């Protein structure tokens, strides 16, 4: 009977399979690395904004509290972004003619809100709620980093499932007295880690926080 495969066809076939294997492994390794890379998590990335709003100037420099502009943060799911009239309470008096603020004045005059490019966002299928975190004393800085040092707003945390879960498994060390949540540099307890731990453990009990429930799928996927 005639040979179906010649010796050389057999070699070519083996080579083909070997190359396919390498391609598959290569893609897997690339995808794996990509999931953790800042390209996907966007940590540290800032986005261009229509107006170069600086938290560094307004929060650290002028000492404005987060809640002055993000009014929903204690009472609703969304922190919210400030309406233009909030900017104009000051900018109708200071820097009134500045070209940098031309779009702010236009927006105020026309009533069309500024369109900010979002940097802190989770996909629509994830349920997040600010008020529940903030009223339990989870500080802004845990999730948004040192906003007060950012000339342009950048993302500080990956906002991936594992990151949420790692705190939900053991929230105690992350809790503060709720009146301290907007404090960026809160060093009292950094000097006394034991006091912080004791406080956290006490609050987990006081609020009735149940880590077992916090890691269940329907907590965040409803
Ligand atoms: C409580 C008063 C106040 C409010 C509210 C305020 N600003 Fe300012 N802003 C200032 C002052 C004062 C400066 C000048 C800061 C400096 O030179 O250090 C400034 C500066 C700026 C600048 C110039 C660049 C910079 O950062 O120095 C921009 C742009 C700006 N503000 C945008 C905004 C926008 C947009 C809003 C609303 C979301 C806003 N500001 C709300 C007081 C305010
Ligand atoms: C004077 C008003 C003002 C104050 C005070 C302020 N912010 Fe903002 N914030 C803004 C504006 C305007 C934007 C949208 C532009 C941008 O992303 O920089 C914003 C954006 C953000 C974002 C990104 C939202 C997104 O998804 O794009 C976060 C997070 C944030 N602020 C947190 C804070 C925290 C935390 C504080 C207090 C330490 C604070 N802000 C104080 C005006 C303010
Ligand atoms: C436990 C983590 C966590 C804490 C604490 C937290 N945030 Fe957020 N923040 C998020 C997440 C997640 C989003 C994206 C929400 C979304 O996409 O719906 C977000 C979005 C925002 C936005 C964009 C607008 C909005 O409402 O979605 C602002 C502004 C903001 N946060 C400000 C604050 C301020 C101010 C504080 C403290 C008083 C704070 N956040 C505390 C996780 C947190
Ligand atoms: C630094 C700690 C921390 C991080 C990070 C964190 N959480 Fe939470 N989360 C808490 C605490 C504390 C509570 C309050 C639990 C309670 O009172 O029972 C909570 C409660 C919640 C609740 C309400 C659960 C209920 O009782 O119905 C949701 C939803 C939630 N978190 C979603 C998220 C999502 C989504 C992320 C990530 C994007 C996230 N959280 C990141 C600490 C955290
Ligand atoms: C504390 C909040 C939280 C809990 C609890 C949680 N998830 Fe998620 N999940 C998230 C967030 C945030 C994302 C978005 C991840 C991203 O954007 O990278 C996500 C994404 C996902 C995705 C999309 C694919 C992916 O991995 O990005 C799936 C599937 C998923 N979750 C399934 C589950 C299942 C199953 C459970 C229960 C075992 C669960 N989640 C519990 C927060 C949570």
From TrEMBL:
* Listed PANTHER family: CYTOCHROME C7-LIKE DOMAIN-CONTAINING PROTEIN, LIPOPROTEIN CYTOCHROME C
Signal peptide (residue range): none
CDD domains reported for this sequence: Cytochrom_C3
Q: In the record, what lineage is assigned to the organism producing the protein?
A: Bacteria, Pseudomonadati, Pseudomonadota, Alphaproteobacteria, Hyphomicrobiales
Protein name per its UniProtKB record: Cytochrome c
């Amino acid at each position: 009977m005639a040979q179906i495969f010649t010796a050389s066809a057999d070699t070519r076939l083996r080579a083909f399979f070997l190359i396919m294997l390498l391609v598959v492994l290569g893609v897997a390794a690339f995808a794996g690395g990509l999931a953790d890379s800042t390209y996907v998590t966007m940590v540290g990335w800032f986005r261009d904004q229509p107006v170069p709003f600086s938290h560094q100037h307004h929060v650290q420099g002028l000492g404005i509290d987060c809640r002055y502009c993000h009014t929903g943060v204690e009472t609703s799911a969304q922190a919210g972004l400030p309406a233009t009239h909030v900017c104009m309470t000051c900018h109708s008096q200071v820097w009134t003619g500045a070209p940098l603020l031309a779009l702010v004045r236009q927006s105020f005059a026309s009533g069309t809100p500024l369109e900010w490019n979002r940097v802190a966002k989770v996909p629509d299928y994830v349920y997040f709620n600010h008020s529940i975190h903030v009223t339990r004393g989870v500080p802004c800085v845990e999730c948004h980093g040192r906003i007060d040092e950012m000339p342009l707003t950048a993302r500080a945390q990956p906002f991936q499932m594992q990151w949420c879960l790692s705190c939900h498994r053991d929230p105690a060390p992350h809790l503060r007295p709720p009146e301290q949540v907007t404090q960026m540099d809160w060093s009292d307890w950094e000097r006394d880690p034991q006091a912080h731990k004791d406080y956290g453990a006490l609050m987990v009990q006081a609020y009735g926080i149940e880590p077992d429930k916090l890691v269940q799928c329907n907590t965040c996927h409803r």
